[in-house]
């Protein structure tokens, strides 16, 4: 049942979703592999919508900063793609990866080329390449997020980054493994430092919805300049839909039907091409690493508005 | 560049695409694992569009019957889903499968539950379940295709089915393997007979575009009755987008940006939700089993019309 | 501590081992995948020694027939090797297989060539080849066992064979999978019938110790004729040591230090080259499918006699 | 055909083998992943025998130092086992690993516990543990080799070690991966430094045959003291036989029939328990990393002397 597609804003829809979520039991559990994330409260919930004209509004904790984590992989991908274009795809694929279990064997089977830019191995490759091009991948990302969100106070959380580094053996293994195939070009410790800084950025639903809006605008940034081509924007959306939510991409497409990218901090961004972007946050995760309340809220959004791409 | 989205028909677009394809070198090679397919001529090309109102038109060999093969998996899925609903998803997943290489180990790792209904293992499970419910899965499929296409002459190609059976050891292995986990309920030889009959149906682009139109109509059949719910139609589209083109689903989403399902006979169906369906055919395949000219034609279609879901 | 290596017989050693085993708690559990095996009593224990001169003696239930199961794979291997020689090794490897988990992916990775003749896939290949050469692999095996043991009453247990067939989907999957690579030449149902008949043979420790003695005699049969060359006997022993006890071959070599082959009926045969053969039986299995009391008894035997090959 | 088992020395056998090898075409290719090894000349060949009484003799280049590489894994294993006993086996298995392809997925499947101490992952665990216990694993190894061989001039080749470090990404990946499971306890860079130093030791066939003799003496060192128990010596021999020659352990057992350990420098040590040890060297490798002439020479040795354990 579609209740609204033509109103000026989605505010009533957000209010209704927040109310439903409020009364939904079962919120999952926060990520627990580093202490900073384990303290997340699954009762927290925020949701923001950014229209393509830059209007932003939300409900709940939509202005509360949280740890963006893998949500930043979307921006790093776009920033690198804008610089090197299709050359990137010789070094990272754009196919879904199947389940996490296969990650290493697939990497071995495919000669150190990760399946897509959103699994950790692929994001490490993208960061490595952006680092080579810019000299500071994490700084380039932060500048972009600050500019697009209009929030100059956005910053890294160096405590979180340090904690990730201390638990970073698996990412170090991935990076060294790809380096053995010649697919990593910077020293692994430097790369990991950049990678963990990127993941540590703290931002709110409002910030991230605004920062993602260039994808709803087919590549046009907040200041009207173009980050990359319309075709590239479409491509990033396609990769988000097929690979953006870990091993639940099929389920997310099935339930939500929008390009989306999640992070273990509990955030998810989603794109309604040509119309708006969404960011939802709630720290409780399901067993595949996606925010339980976040996915539920997006599911309700597309059901109520009919704005699924399908 | 979008040249047309509001005209009454897409005929000029199809003409233009056919002309471009005509002049494109490199058409891939026909499937060669059975003689009947190996004889396919890569120079053949047809494309049809069916509007949601039932209008159909096309270019090239769009009325030439060809071997539908895995394209039929869409219909079998829809027909079973219409009967048993979400219960199906306890027996087959809806996540992309990663590369073909992993198919067996994933099946083993996940206790005989295939990743999605479009890999062979998953299609065998769907056929097995439809067979249990109807007593004749292949017949149920054929009836549906005849009715939706309005072409009562559609039929199995029993010579092709026999040839598939003679080369069917790998599918027999998959079926027995899943049976060892209790996920196949009919005798394997009977199941394979039904499965290969389904794949053998011969139909044209016109037939298949019309037969797929219920997905563009959100579940409504040609006679106005409803096959299944709007939500189920959306779900089938989502599974097509993430899993419909073998190990090239990401690439297909990236280039074409529509839900689609391909077959090794060289056919591909695609859905523009709420608007129309497409079917393209050309027997030459790329190394991942998708029609080279078919994917190129769909790529051009969404580029020229802007009708990608992204 | 070596207590005896030069006495005329090992009878005192067997008596001591039987007494120790009697007082050892924890006997594992019988195989439960078919009813006929699930009824096995873990308290049963028998052990026999056959000297190279044909003398045989034992303790406990050493004359009690039991289901030989995979122990027969040694004889099938020897019988086929005697017929086709090294040609066999183009169709089955002789390397350990790593853990069971990898069986299917290894088979896929290595183009349908199983790692060794003692995993099920490899034994199916050997049976298929012996079947092609003799027209009746199971009958050839039974004749050999009867002749070498001097026990003309040995026979198949057709009830067990039927039960195996009814639970045979995994072996059917392996056979069809290898057939898809051209590595199985008989119809799969016929092959499985032969395979399960072989496994169903009932024999006692006395029978099996005698039937294995040709390996301790470097290839010479009970009647003084030669089954195959000294070098081939050494090769079979080597394959037994590295691959004979499922995924516990390393552990068996480490603890027992003799070529051995186990079955899920609880039997194990072992070879002391140039000296004697052993067969032990107790139905309780460990989690890798080897008889708990059987391995313990062989471990004690080599410790007490110093007759490990290491 | 056995020509000699009771003579005082094996010198005539060695002479004959050297002559045969001299006239055998096809010597394989030296390892080429680091320049220092790539320079090896496949025409070089040496072979030494050390009797349990300490007598040593040889043919060809048996006094020429070469890069020991993985041959040192035997000594590191023995040195750690002597210190911590069976506790080691909670951290590394003793089962063959199947083919190299599976190494990473097996490590993942088995929670960071490598299959055996002779694959790289397992040797890293053993070195890590010896390092924790001694503070200097490489130094402990070097002392042992010098003492047992009586050659105080043995030393690391720091140029080779540096070259290995520069190409060490894959080992770094393994170490970090196991560290993520808590199975590595020292900093990865320190561990790799120790590991590559161990592998870099240069020694001759004479040195290594003497240094290995404690295994033929069931644990007794050159000075008559005991390194570890008779049972532990038997266990190391068993692990060598089942896991000592990469993915050719089955083939090595089949052809040679002795516990052995090879290295990519072209050296192989082998043990005839209770009798003697052998070391052979020739830099040309087969496609599984074992010296072509080395395996051939050992094969001839056991054929000529009948001293296979089988």
TrEMBL record, chains A, B, C, D:
The keyword Metal-binding does not apply. InterPro entries: Beta-lactam/transpept-like, Glutaminase. Signal peptide: none annotated. Keywords: Acetylation, Hydrolase. Pfam families: Glutaminase. It catalyses: L-glutamine + H2O = L-glutamate + NH4(+). Substrate binds at residues 70, 120, 164, 171, 195, 246, 264. GO terms for biological process: glutamate biosynthetic process; L-glutamine catabolic process. It comes from the Bacteria. GO terms for molecular function: glutaminase activity. It is an enzyme of class 3 (hydrolase). Gene3D superfamilies: DD-peptidase/beta-lactamase superfamily. Its EC number is 3.5.1.2. Homotetramer. Belongs to the glutaminase family. PANTHER family: GLUTAMINASE (PTHR12544). This is Glutaminase. It comes from Streptomyces cadmiisoli.
């Amino acid at each position: 049942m579609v209740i609204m597609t033509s109103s000026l804003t989605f505010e009533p829809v957000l209010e209704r979703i927040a109310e439903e979520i409020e009364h939904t039991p079962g919120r999952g559990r926060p990520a627990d592999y580093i202490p900073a994330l384990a303290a997340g409260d699954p009762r927290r919930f925020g949701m923001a919508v950014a229209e393509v004209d830059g209007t932003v509004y939300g409900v709940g904790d939509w202005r509360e900063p949280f740890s963006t984590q893998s949500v930043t992989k979307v921006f790093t991908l776009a920033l690198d793609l804008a610089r090197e274009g299709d050359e990137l795809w010789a070094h990272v694929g754009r196919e879904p990866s199947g389940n996490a279990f296969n990650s290493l064997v697939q990497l071995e089977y495919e000669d150190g080329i990760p399946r897509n830019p959103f699994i950790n191995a692929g994001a490490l490759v993208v960061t490595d390449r952006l680092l080579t091009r810019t000299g500071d991948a994490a700084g380039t990302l932060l500048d972009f997020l600050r500019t697009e969100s209009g929030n100059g106070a956005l910053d890294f959380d160096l405590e979180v980054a340090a904690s990730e580094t201390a638990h970073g053996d698996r990412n170090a293994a991935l990076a060294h493994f790809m380096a053995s195939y010649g697919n990593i070009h910077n020293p692994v410790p430097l790369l990991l430092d950049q990678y963990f800084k990127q993941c540590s950025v703290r931002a709110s639903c409002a910030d991230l919805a605004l920062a993602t809006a260039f994808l709803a605008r087919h590549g046009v940034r907040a200041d009207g300049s173009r980050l990359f081509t319309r075709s590239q924007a479409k491509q990033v959306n396609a990769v988000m839909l097929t690979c953006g939510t870990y091993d639940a991409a099929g389920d997310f497409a099935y339930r939500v039907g929008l390009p989306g990218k999640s992070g273990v901090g509990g955030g998810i961004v989603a794109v309604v091409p040509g119309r708006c972007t969404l960011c939802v946050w709630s720290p409780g995760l399901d067993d595949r690493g996606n925010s339980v309340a976040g996915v539920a809220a997006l599911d309700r959004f597309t059901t109520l508005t009919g704005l699924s791409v399908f």
